């Protein structure tokens, strides 16, 4: 009787499939970081950023929930919990959660995305930079602080290098004959990676930067910026040196302000947006456009396009005008 009943059930309903056990966010996070970043060769800084977001914001609230049980209400609760955080921080957290859930779908851990979080609007602030007078004060203060500080300021504001690109720069990347340097790597916590957008770039040297590199050339080690022992300078050390020089010059502090200064000064002196993008190594032109409102020369040239073209007078009028000028 049991066999007949079982046979009837199988014919009507089919075999019973065991429901797949879905891991919690905390359990899946371990697999995610073991497999995904390594396989896709993500930069160490990007991996560390995602780990920080998970550890500080996501796991305390959602770590014990199964992936398929995370719903839109949980996302709203997460936003409410981060109400005191900047919109960009909230958006970064939502983006990491979305990436993790999408990877779970791709790996067939869950069947579909269980929720959808709407990003917050972010007001883009104007980039802080040093005007020409303030920058010269900073250069003078940096020169007094020492050759390392002087080079950091010049590499940031006259070559547009990021902090990691500065401390990773090697003497073999400096071409004194062609007056240019090659930005091919970046340093982060002792690890060398590619620049931020993954592309190398060539940056021509200003006369002042070329002279400083020639003056401060040393044999302590392969890196341009290093300690007396030859060990590479850290990003934190670069920040500290610039902070001291900025305090003496009474200007805003920060290594990245130097990069903003590089882009801003180029725009203010009429450099095309595409050229600024290539020199700065921006992946998107939208990043460069943050500085283009400073280009008064470019705005003037654009307005001139609205002027009607000048019509040349007929040949007879030219001769008649010339004759009247001779008579007078």
Beta-strand proportion: under 5%
Q: What Rg, in angstroms, do the CA atoms define?
A: 30 Å
Strand order in the sheet with the most strands: 1-2-5
Number of helices: 15
The count of strands amounts to: 5
Give the end-to-end Cα distance, rounded to a whole number of Å: 130 Å
Order of helical and strand elements: HHHHHHHHEEEEEHHHHHHH
Biggest sheet descriptor:
3 strands, antiparallel
Helix content: 55-70%
What low-confidence regions span 5 or more consecutive residues with pLDDT below 50?
none
Shape estimate = elongated
Mean pLDDT: 88
Structural class assignment: mainly alpha
Describe it.
The protein is mainly α. 55% of the residues lie in helices and 5% in strands. It has 15 helices and 5 strands. The protein has helices at residues 2-13, 25-39, 44-62, 72-81, 87-106, 132-145, 147-159, 163-168, 207-215, 235-249, 255-268, 273-280, 285-288, 296-304, 315-327; strands at 174-175, 180-183, 186-188, 191-193, 201-204. It has a 3-stranded antiparallel sheet. α7 crosses α10.
